[in-house]
Structure formats: C-alpha cells, structure tokens
Write a structure and sequence with these properties.
This protein has 242 residues and is an alpha+beta fold. The protein contains 5 helices and 13 strands. It is globular, with a radius of gyration of 20 Å.
Length: 242
C-alpha cells in the first residue's frame, strides 16, 4: 500500500499535478472551530476601534443570518453607516450626526455580499459557488504559510494565507480597482481570539498598494448570538425586503 502511494505520488509529480485544495480547506475550517460551531453563530456583534493613519474612530459591526450586515463607523465629524438586508444595500458617503443613506452600486453590492457571509467562503463553498486552487507556500510575519486562491462566482479572486502548521487564517489579498488603477489590497490578521470555540480575528491591518495610509482595526468586544431585529439592517423608510 505504501509503495502504491509512492508510485502514485511520483506519477502525479511527473504529470505536473498537485494534490487538490480540499484537504487544506477542511483543515482551515477546523482551525477556526469547525462547521458545527461556525453554523451555531446565528448573529454576531463586534465592537472596537479603527484607525486610518492619524484619524481614529469607533467601529461596530453586526451580522445576522442570512447575509445581513450593519456597520457603523464613528468619526470626529459624525457617523458613517452601511446596511445590507441580504438583498439590498445602502451606504452613507459623508459622516454626519444623521447619515444620509444612498442605495449601493452594483460593485458595492457584490462586495457587501461577501462581507456579510458570517462563515466566510471556505465554509459550504459548493453551495456558494466558490472554488479553490493551491497557490504555493510563503511567509507572513515570519510564519510559514500555505496560500489558497479563492474564486467567487462574481469573478473576484482572493488569495488566502493560512498558517502552515495550525492552518489558521492569517489574512488575504485581492486586486481592486482604485481611482481607475489596479491595486493590490492586503489584509493581515495581527491577533485572534476564541469565543465559544470559534476563532475571530481581533487585530486587522489593511493596506493598499500605493495608498497613502492603511487601516487598523482592533476588536475589543465579541457578542455571539445577540438579539438583532431585522429592521437594523435597512433604513427606517425602506420597508420589508421583497
């Protein structure tokens, strides 16, 4: 049996083939707590702070299945708000005491749908139409990593970096269009915490290639399964989702 496995491995190497990504995806999901624990999180509230260079503010993000998201960013000049009810999305572009919400563009909706996924793309990937490819090995902040390319149905491609030993996610990168130019946005998890057996990133640094300043998020409070009314995920006058 051992000889057969060695022969198969040798044949795959000669053909230029690599083992598929399914095992790595499974290990990454287990490292976060496993499918059962992840599915048990029906709603979530994260509270903390955010810094854009010298500008700092408060941050509160709420999630509720299926695919609902509310994000409040408190800045010195007022509040920025993003809402997604699972189908429609609204955002304010100017911070104010009473944010004025406008419908999201098609590009913004595509992005917020990914953000609102409580489990992330590695969980229930087939049902979501997400596929994967191995992307080699590397290093992040001195830690050996295995890279995984994640292909979304809308055409977005993200490269996840997983700790080679623990398989915990260390962040991801994505090519975005910023001011008409293709730029690489990189997100790194600098700290994590387990709550009810589920691993959550609590230190998150994001940089954009060629950007003037990055963004740092520090999560101080994690509330699992808080009671959240559906109305929190749409403007007061939006009415029920169709």
């Amino acid at each position: 049996m051992k000889r057969s496995r060695l022969l198969l491995s040798g044949a795959l190497a000669l053909l230029g083939c690599k083992p598929g990504p399914a095992k790595l995806v499974e290990q990454a999901v287990q490292a976060r707590g496993g499918v059962e624990r992840l599915h048990a999180v029906q709603s979530l509230r994260l509270s903390g702070n955010v810094a854009f260079g010298p500008v700092t503010g408060s941050l509160r993000v709420e999630f509720k299945r299926p695919d609902r998201l509310r994000m409040e960013l408190g800045l010195p000049e007022g509040t920025l708000l993003r809402l997604f009810d699972g189908t429609r999305g609204w955002t304010s572009t100017v911070a104010s005491v009473s944010p004025v919400l406008q419908p999201m563009s098609a590009a913004e909706l595509a992005g917020v749908r990914r953000e609102a996924d409580l489990d992330g793309p590695l969980v229930d990937a087939r049902e979501k139409g997400v596929t994967f490819a191995l992307a080699g090995r590397g290093e992040v902040d001195g830690r050996a990593t295995e890279a995984l390319d994640v292909f979304f149905p809308d055409g977005t491609v993200q490269r996840y970096q997983l700790d080679a030993a623990t398989h915990e996610p260390l962040g991801w990168s994505e090519t975005r269009t910023v001011d008409g130019k293709q730029r690489v946005e990189e997100t790194r998890f600098t700290a994590s915490r387990r709550v009810q057996g589920v691993l959550f990133p609590v230190g998150i640094d994001t940089t954009v290639q060629g950007g003037a300043s990055g963004r740092h998020i520090a999560i101080h409070s994690i509330e699992v399964n808080p009671l959240l009314d559906d109305a929190r995920f749409r403007p007061p006058a939006a009415g029920p989702a169709n």
